[in-house]
């Protein structure tokens, strides 16, 4: 599931609102370990604009300890 969600997020990264929606759905499907891995991947893969959306979604949707 994680690899599939990465693929989906790569495909919608040009559309910030759709990216946010897909990321929110992803967090509903992934376990904590996968979500942490996804967060790290997002920080490495995307520019600050998209990553800031990711930070907002993770902050609102999870109680994970992310650094």
Task: Give a verbal description of the structure.
The chain has about 70 residues and is mainly α. The protein has one domain (about 1-60). Helices cover about 80% and strands about 0% of the residues. The protein contains 4 helices and no strands. The protein has helices at about 1-10, 15-30, 30-45, 50-60. α1 (about 1-10) runs antiparallel to α2 (about 15-30) and α2 runs parallel beside α4. The chain is globular and about 25 Å long. The termini are far apart.
Q: What's the SSE blueprint?
A:
Blueprint: H1 2-12, H2 16-29, H3 32-45, H4 48-61
Helix pairs in contact: 1-2, 2-4
State the major sheet.
none
| Rg, nearest Å | 10 Å
Taken in chain order, the helices and strands follow as HHHH
Number of helices: 4
Low-pLDDT stretches are none
Number of strands: 0
**Percent of residues in beta strands:** under 5%
- Helix coverage percent of residues? over 70%
Tell me the structural class: mainly alpha
Kindly report how far apart the N and C termini lie. 23 Å
């Amino acid at each position: 599931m994680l690899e599939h969600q990465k693929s989906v997020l790569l495909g919608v990264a040009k559309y910030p609102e759709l990216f946010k929606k897909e990321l929110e759905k992803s967090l509903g499907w992934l376990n904590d370990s996968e979500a942490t891995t996804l967060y790290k991947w997002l920080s490495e893969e995307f520019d600050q604009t998209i990553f800031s959306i990711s930070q907002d979604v993770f902050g609102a949707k999870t109680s994970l300890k992310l650094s």
